[in-house]
Amino acid sequence: MWGGRFLTKDNKLNNSYETLEPLFNPKSVAILGASESKYKIGYLQVKALLDGQFSGEIYPINRKAKEIEGLKCYPSLSDIPNDIDLAIFCLGAEQVQQALEDCAQKKVKAAIIFAAGFSETGEEGVKQQETLTELARKSGIRIVGPNCVGLVNLSNGLIGTFSPAILSVPLNDQRGVGYVSQSGAFGVLTYMAAAQNGLSFNYFVSVGNEMETEFSDIIEYMIHDPKTSVISGYLEGAKNPDKLRSLAKEALDRNKPIVVMKTGRSIAGSRAAVSHTGSLAGSDKVYDAFFKQSGMVRADDYEDIISFSKLFLSNKLPNGRNTVIVTSSGGRGINEADRCEAYGLNIIPLSSKTTTEIKRFLPNFASASNPVDLTAAASVSNPELFIAPLRALIEDPDVDNIIFTEFPFSWTAENPLLQEFIDICSRSNKFVFITTFPLDGMSLPPGTPELVKNGIPVIPGNLNPIRGLAKLVEYSEYYRKNQEANVFNSSKKIEKQRLQSLLEPGTTLSESQASVILERYQIPTTKRVIAENPEKASQHANKIGYPVVLKVDSPDIPHKTEADAIRLNLKNDQEVKKAFNEIKRNALNYKPDAKINGISVQEMLPDGVEVIVGASKDPVFGPVIMFGLGGIFVEIYKDISFRIAPLTRKDALEMIEDIKGKAILKGTRGKSSYDIEAIIDVLLKVSALVTDYKDSIEELDINPLIVYENGIKAADAMIVVGNKVDDKATIRG
Amino acid sequence: MWGGRFLTKDNKLNNSYETLEPLFNPKSVAILGASESKYKIGYLQVKALLDGQFSGEIYPINRKAKEIEGLKCYPSLSDIPNDIDLAIFCLGAEQVQQALEDCAQKKVKAAIIFAAGFSETGEEGVKQQETLTELARKSGIRIVGPNCVGLVNLSNGLIGTFSPAILSVPLNDQRGVGYVSQSGAFGVLTYMAAAQNGLSFNYFVSVGNEMETEFSDIIEYMIHDPKTSVISGYLEGAKNPDKLRSLAKEALDRNKPIVVMKTGRSIAGSRAAVSHTGSLAGSDKVYDAFFKQSGMVRADDYEDIISFSKLFLSNKLPNGRNTVIVTSSGGRGINEADRCEAYGLNIIPLSSKTTTEIKRFLPNFASASNPVDLTAAASVSNPELFIAPLRALIEDPDVDNIIFTEFPFSWTAENPLLQEFIDICSRSNKFVFITTFPLDGMSLPPGTPELVKNGIPVIPGNLNPIRGLAKLVEYSEYYRKNQEANVFNSSKKIEKQRLQSLLEPGTTLSESQASVILERYQIPTTKRVIAENPEKASQHANKIGYPVVLKVDSPDIPHKTEADAIRLNLKNDQEVKKAFNEIKRNALNYKPDAKINGISVQEMLPDGVEVIVGASKDPVFGPVIMFGLGGIFVEIYKDISFRIAPLTRKDALEMIEDIKGKAILKGTRGKSSYDIEAIIDVLLKVSALVTDYKDSIEELDINPLIVYENGIKAADAMIVVGNKVDDKATIRG
């Protein structure tokens, strides 16, 4: 399945975020199934809109009731004299289709459908849902649900949900974070936890079965929504990864961070695969690559969503990783410093100038090194001790980030010291934030709203804010790179080559067959000839020049070493003939029914660094490229990196940077560097090849690919061809 | 500093936990500096004992006051007619010495000293503290502090602290967890956070400056205290690591888990070191080794302390890693499953029998695979859905652990379903616990006390309970191994060898010098002779037999490859002579003032797997052993493991198991296994060597040590000798 499942059949309705406007900002809402009974969803929903002081018109629909909570009721949609933007279905599954037809009739623009009982229940439900989808598309109705918790917009009081949990959360000021969730229950829990930690999402959308509108449609709306500064989400599986990827780029261009919690690492499951790449590319690793390539920020938990959002809301981007901790408890200081180092932030030693400056104001038993320990006196009796060190650290050009692990409780909004603290921070481009110890009633000091308003996040320590800072630094680096010209484009256009005669559907290609394909894409391979008997082999060897290598050439024996069907460094005719016979015998012993094309006679390549470049087809993202050092580095250390094709030059470079073994490629112990440009070149060519033939090539391994100080050569290769071969020109973006 | 700093000079007072009894269970307490003024520590302390309903006598000491809070005051200690077990000093630093002298006079048995202003302030303070220590030891007074927050014993109401934070925590039932902290503030925060999450420590001890009584003394007391089932602590640096290590063994024998948060990973700092081992052995890695060897459980954060303690309190040990999640939110289920996999627990597929059994009772849209999703209906309207799956999972022999991510709020203590749930769990040896979503007022369901009482922990998800379960499984494995005979002993006694003539103080030994030492401990080395000129070299080569290796032999050139002063696989006289000259020239170019003993002519060893065995001296723990695969595996992948000497056979085995590269040693792709017994043998011999000469040998590298299918050989070695050489017989434990 190659994406696009949720693009419309006629490619018309679903490609505009503007048509989602009636979902988020309806002028009028009809509640189908409104009820007088206080325990029914149809009542809770009416009440929710009233409690939320929804700014538009509310029309409860109820066949019998005259009014609900003082609002006039209408027996049916068609009885309403005015236009309806949004219909909220408080109805059982069996009533949904008729109601949707009524909506079409009434030209309602959008709907929220809570009812469960559709595609999640099996075949019958899938069919019913398809009927609804068709109806919605034909009539242009945008729909959230079914099987969802609804939609909330805090800026206009549209509380489009029945969830008592969400209703119980006080409506804080809107704060610029939109939230979209593929799980209703988890979404609600996160919404509540955020509110309890001082963060109200301005939008909450539970997408349910994603019948007509899906995850990335909501993201798209939020990207274009001026009230949203940070987009967050909970994702179990991307329905339209291509769209999500291009949206991520758009968001990055606008510096609108997308923080997404992607679950399902554990249920990724491995597929049966022939190639190394295929067996190593678990889908979670591919998601990781997706996040890296797109600039989206991956959250691992609901705590991350809250703390990352709070940090990103500050609207300041850190300049680097150099971090100073200011604490009034030695223990907490060390603990937070440990976390910083664990997440790749640097706890830097302070300059003697800064140390001296801090010491001037601190008592002699305090510590002016990093972590700066103001001692318990600071938070309890001498809160002014917070000011002088801050001033000194702000002046220090080596410092990028300053983290306070406490904040004086006596500094209320009116306290001049709070204002002084804020002023110092505001005049600087350093990133300052406060991470508190999460005790009931103590995690958000009284100054919090004033601090947050001025771009200084206050985050309870249990929400992982230090990891959040590390993510913000990464995002900031990525954002700045994005602003540089062309890093996202590959340097040269690689032409699509015609391969139809070479890609026999449903087969595994032997080394010699695969090599021909690589050569078409100008990837250097070894000189080789296939020999049918020992005499021919030694003739070829003489032409190629000794020493030579002999290997079995068979689509059925991809791992030649395992079959003992490869001989290196053969120096004369006699050795070649002996090797020929041994290889043939071993190959047939290993796999008696193997189809053997012959024995391949090849030049013996000089030593270099062995790397592996591979590709496999991910069920969600399509062709995925792998890179790593060969041999045990792949097998034991799993020192590999993935990116989704097509690769940009930046992707290819980062794939090499991602692996620990890059140190070997860059030359250790005074050894000179290997040809990294040549690796990038092969990566981009493989990316072009598997993108051109994404419907045909299931798996590809170049293993080993031997890298020299100058140049590179594929010493072995295999390709698995799928059952369908498509040779039409495709577009590579 | 080789441990023992806190052992007493006369080795008498400090080695018995029994003398700590008056600190924890005094019959009478005198409060020095008791006060009528409600804001003074001297008042708060009196009030705390009264509020705690302390079971013993309370004697406030105040020169003027007649009574405080209804208790009769005494003008001085000597005026009290009865014996005093414990004195609590609510006094400034300047009054402490006189007061301690008074205590000695009165034969007070123990004291708590809050005052700061001693060793933490510098030289003068260190001296004052030493005077106090001497006084305390002479008079046999056990002391907690100075510079501490005090001591709490919830079983007798001894609230020996002034901390308003601790006083604000309600006194729950005692629950069997003792807690000792090297940080006052962090200790108090953890104490409060634990209480807010339903866990009261039965003891809280802030050890402050550890003047007379230190961290491990308190641990020792708790090990012998029948009221303590789990010991927890916060540690910045062990003052007496040897004692802690032997206590850990004792605790393990008694199945009394010790959970310790050790901070300071980031400030470990690296020392200048000549050997690989020296530069890689950061002190935090050595602490990790310490935890692994001792069976103590390392916590990374205060959350870990709370959740690990709660899990360990259940008093059940998991049988393995096979884990099933039961949830009523698909999202939470996946999220917790991800965490399980991340921490090394197995989310197993359920057998068809179990699946069928679960399906019989669940609605058709629920999921009977793992995670088992009961859907929202379970927690809200049909809580009885929790029972049937539990019963089926308890019956399944493949399941070790069952985690519920929700628990019905309607199940109060009287609810028969709660009792049924508990009964099912109690009759099984499977580990069951509940991890809740941490929302205010929702994280501890009403059934919690009943569940906990019956060994079913209930832990808010933000406290990392899944990591806790993984740690509990590890502990359980360790505990069971400990019960097997002899795994902690090395298999044979290795005699101490006399080396005094070989260990010249303050020098680095060349390969040939180091090899002689290795040979004394029967570690196999290469055949070699030192040649002074090219002719001698070729003569030696002929005797040894071609091919040979030539290397510079110099204490000043430990890294021969870097100096290009090594030539391998020399096949004849001519090659040897040429190599001799090149090596000499390169060595002198590399380091013109190097002392060169000559050029070492050695047998050329056949290929094998290159490993490295090393030792270095840790400032806290003394000699530390390192093991890893050689070359880039050490340098780039840091695939190494550490243990503190002396090693047991179990330690040596685990060092090999710890590294990823063990797969190579065990034979990959059908290759046969290498001689792992020989590696263990070398590890134990090196351990013996550096333990025998722990005052002399600063660093040691055997690199490479070449391992064969049968046998092993040290191909190169170096030793750094410290300034002091002690050749006396030492005891190895």
Automatic annotation (TrEMBL), chains A, B:
<dbReference type="Pfam" id="PF13607">
    <property type="entry name" value="Succ_CoA_lig"/>
</dbReference>
<keyword id="KW-0436">Ligase</keyword>
<dbReference type="InterPro" id="IPR003781">
    <property type="entry name" value="CoA-bd"/>
</dbReference>
<dbReference type="InterPro" id="IPR036291">
    <property type="entry name" value="NAD(P)-bd_dom_sf"/>
</dbReference>
<dbReference type="InterPro" id="IPR011761">
    <property type="entry name" value="ATP-grasp"/>
</dbReference>
<dbReference type="Pfam" id="PF13549">
    <property type="entry name" value="ATP-grasp_5"/>
</dbReference>
<dbReference type="InterPro" id="IPR013815">
    <property type="entry name" value="ATP_grasp_subdomain_1"/>
</dbReference>
<dbReference type="InterPro" id="IPR051538">
    <property type="entry name" value="Acyl-CoA_Synth/Transferase"/>
</dbReference>
<dbReference type="InterPro" id="IPR043938">
    <property type="entry name" value="Ligase_CoA_dom"/>
</dbReference>
<keyword id="KW-0547">Nucleotide-binding</keyword>
<dbReference type="InterPro" id="IPR032875">
    <property type="entry name" value="Succ_CoA_lig_flav_dom"/>
</dbReference>
<dbReference type="Pfam" id="PF13380">
    <property type="entry name" value="CoA_binding_2"/>
</dbReference>
<protein>
    <submittedName>
        <fullName>CoA-binding protein</fullName>
    </submittedName>
</protein>
<dbReference type="InterPro" id="IPR016102">
    <property type="entry name" value="Succinyl-CoA_synth-like"/>
</dbReference>
<dbReference type="Pfam" id="PF19045">
    <property type="entry name" value="Ligase_CoA_2"/>
</dbReference>
<feature type="domain" description="ATP-grasp">
    <location>
        <begin position="515"/>
        <end position="551"/>
    </location>
</feature>
<keyword id="KW-0067">ATP-binding</keyword>
